[in-house]
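Title: Prediction job returns without error message
Component: structure pipeline
Severity: low
Priority: P3
Assignee: unassigned

Description:
Job completed but the reporter wants confirmation the result is attached to the right record. Sequence as submitted:
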Amino acid sequence: MDKTKNTNTKVIVDPAILEKTPTVAVSAPPLGKKGQSSNQPVKSLSVNLLNKTVTFVSDFLETIVVALSIFVVVYLFLVQPHEVKGSSMEPNFHNNEYILTDKISYRFRKPARGEVVIFKSPKNPEVDYIKRIIALPGERVKIKDGYVYINEEKLNEYYLDSSTNLFPGSSMQEGVEIVIPEGEFLVLGDNRPHSSDSREFGPISQDLIIGHAFIRYWPLSQLGFIPKITYSLKTASDK
């Protein structure tokens, strides 16, 4: 036989080499359902992170919605912030001061003399005025020699710096008594020489009153409840 045509080759391996060759076992990656590698831990981490993010955003938005709802209810029905503009209520209220207006009390009781009220201007409903209630429905009022008289009794307005004078165009005349109609109130500014009030446009209807000022919250040096004014009238109730 021709040895050159022999295609069967043999490789002799020394058994000693086989014995000394280390065996390394390699663990195959876990297989998915279709034989693919599984990245389940990475997916679980991403899903958990996404769920936490969604939960956080949802809770945050829910808190904002609840807070806004409470604010709207309070603003529309309970209290409302107002900024004092001008000098008509000096020396007791000054320009750029901020107050809170109680809008709920007058649903259960009538406005009282001495209370500082915020109301829609009879001439322009877009403008809010701040004045003090001086006379109540059914009372007889006149202004004489710089003083206000209620049912012939002089009103002691110890909180004023100036007298109550009439001016051209006033709806009231010096020393002439008027009767406040039912459901209306006579209101005056504390700074009588520089106030547009019932001397100009007459008594106002309670329907125009937004509420009464009960807290001053700015500036912080004036923070606190607005003092209640009491009078010594013998012929009228100041409740």
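Comment from assignee: result matches the submitted record. The longest strand covers residues 209-218.
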